[in-house]
Amino acid sequence: MTQKIKTSGKLEYFQLRSQEIENGFGYSFAIKVGNLIKASGAVSMDDEGKPTAVGDYLQQMKNCYADIEKMLTHYGCTFDNIIVENIFTTDITSFLENLEYRKSLYKKNRYPKSTWLGVKELAMPELMIEIEVEVCKPYV
């Protein structure tokens, strides 16, 4: 099934954390225009903007995907609506060791266009993974 992307219309901003936190860092978690949703990189962070699951790669990965799922739910989408997924990690080996968890989220076994990058560091030294997605919301 081919899904058309509509990128005209008003911008709708989605905040996952408080305005104080997101504005403090200078970002919005996601922006929707038409049926396209672009999300900032999700990281393992609490509601006060502090890193969580420090030293636990799999838990950090799960926390990232949990934040993405909150945004998807808000827009009436699932992981199967993700069309682009970019993963930035300071430990590509650990990412590959935990790949099955990522794959389990895509229930239809159709995966998004994806880029996986090993990087030297992320925004905070405790962070090991950051996941950025783009979503195509189906028309109803």
Largest sheet: 6 strands, mixed
Poorly predicted ranges: none
| CA-based shape | globular
Terminal CA distance: 14 Å
Amount of helix: 25-40%
Strands of the largest sheet, in order across it?
1-2-3-6-4-5
Q: Total helix count?
A: 4
Q: How much of the polypeptide forms β-strand, as a percent range?
A: 15-25%
Quantity of strands, as a count: 6
Structural class: alpha+beta
Average residue pLDDT: 92
Structural account:
The chain has 140 residues and is of the alpha+beta class. The chain contains four helices and six strands; from the N terminus they run βαββαβααββ. It has helices at 19-25, 57-74, 92-97, 99-105, and strands spanning 11-14, 30-33, 36-39, 82-89, 113-118, 129-136. The protein has a six-stranded mixed β-sheet with strand order 1-2-3-6-4-5, covered by helices on one side. The longest helix is centred in the middle third of the chain and has 18 residues, at 57-74. The chain is globular, with a radius of gyration of 15 Å. The two termini are 14 Å apart. The model has no long low-confidence stretch (mean pLDDT 92).
